Amino acid sequence: MNTPIYRLAVVELASSLFTACNPEPQDEVTGVRKTVEKLQQQYDELMAERGGDPVEWAASDLENLGDWEYRVETLRLTSEEEFAATLNEFGNDRWEVIWLERTPGGLMVIMKKPSISLLSKIPLSQLGRFIIDGSGESQ
């Protein structure tokens, strides 16, 4: 269901998020308008791809809060520099090493990172406005 009220809520939510998270001074009207248009386009594409209800999407996104993704790799490295470079590559993708173990095939590395939740990026003070009344309008 892609009703105007959901679209309006998402656009207002995005606008609030952008305003709250962007401390750099700029022409607010132009900057916010461009951001809202871009987010509206991304929202429309997402809804076209998924064909789902925004409320269902939000519920599934909230399920990711606090969850972890895990990754296990076996590394066959020849130098400390190569090992450090490989770990830095993992770190660039936000993987955190939680266990190292020497195995006959090399070093087994177990890593984790938080699952992606787009709603986790929204300040709770702003998110509450949309959960309570669904429109973003103050009551």
Short overview:
This protein is of the alpha+beta class. The protein has five helices and three strands.
Please tally the β strands and state the result: 3
Strand content: 15-25%
Continuous helix count? 5
CA radius of gyration is 21 Å
Secondary-structure element pattern, one letter each = HHHEHEEH
The separation of the N and C termini measures 25 Å
Overall pLDDT confidence: 74
Biggest sheet, spatial arrangement of strands: 1-3-2
What characterizes the major β-sheet?
A: 3 strands, antiparallel
Furnish the topology, listing elements before pairings:
Elements: H1 4-21, H2 28-50, H3 54-63, E1 68-75, H4 80-92, E2 96-103, E3 106-114, H5 124-133
Antiparallel strand pairs: 1-3, 2-3
Helix pairs in contact: 1-2
Structural features, described:
- The structure is a single chain.
- This protein is α+β, with helices and mostly antiparallel strands and 139 residues long.
- The protein has 2 domains: 4-64 and 117-133, no CATH class; 68-114.
- It is built from 5 helices and 3 strands.
- It has helices at 4-21, 28-50, 54-63, 80-92, 124-133, and strands at residues 68-75, 96-103, 106-114.
- It has a 3-stranded antiparallel β-sheet with strand order 1-3-2, with helices on one face.
- Strand 2 and strand 3 (106-114) form a beta hairpin.
- The two termini are 25 Å apart.
